[in-house]
Amino acid sequence: MAAWPNAGLDEATAEKIRTHLQERLVALIDLQLTLKHVHWNVVGPNFIGVHEMLDPHVDTVREFTDEVAERIAALGGQPIGTPGHVASTRTWDEYDIRRASVETHLKALDAVYTGLIGDHRKVMHELEEMDLVSHDMLVGQTEALEMQQWFVRAHLANADGQLPE
Q1: Start and end of every Ferritin/DPS domain (predicted)?
Q2: What domains sit in the chain, N to C, each tagged with a CATH number?
Q3: Which of 11, 40, 58, 96 has the greatest count of CB atoms below 10 A from its CB?
């Protein structure tokens, strides 16, 4: 049973929402760390543009982690953001690129965004029936994450705006 009331939701529904949000919290913490890792390890032409672009992305995602964690707490849960929990519960592979070119990192980062945004959308649709507050939070986050992905893709695109295969 929750430590306190669940914002007007029955316990079973609140637990489903908390579970979904905890999964999103893990993904956002992982993205935040991955973005900073890329920031430190990107090299080559256009280095400075990418390096400087990523810090605001990190800051935005850090705000999202706080927002999700606080929503979990508001629903009577206990958000878990420890490194061990993040590493042991994520369902995707470790970002294993170390020092590498702008193109290498941005292609990999594009794939990270695609996966995270896709998972956000899946949860968003499930939450639409259970909790419009959490749903709306993820809608706003997805919009910002898609904008961040667009910035990444703009660095990868050719003169015609096409992404390399």
Answers
A1: 20-159
A2: 11-156 (1.20.1260.10)
A3: 58
d(CA 38, CA 55): 10
CB atoms within 10 A of CB 73: 15
Q: Model confidence over 73-124: pLDDT tens digits?
A: 999 999 999 999 999 999 999 999 999 999 999 999 999 999 999 999 999 9
**How far is the CA of 60 from the CAs of 53, 56, 126, 136, 165, in angstroms?**
12, 6, 24, 17, 29
Amino acid at 21: L
CA distance 77 to 14: 9
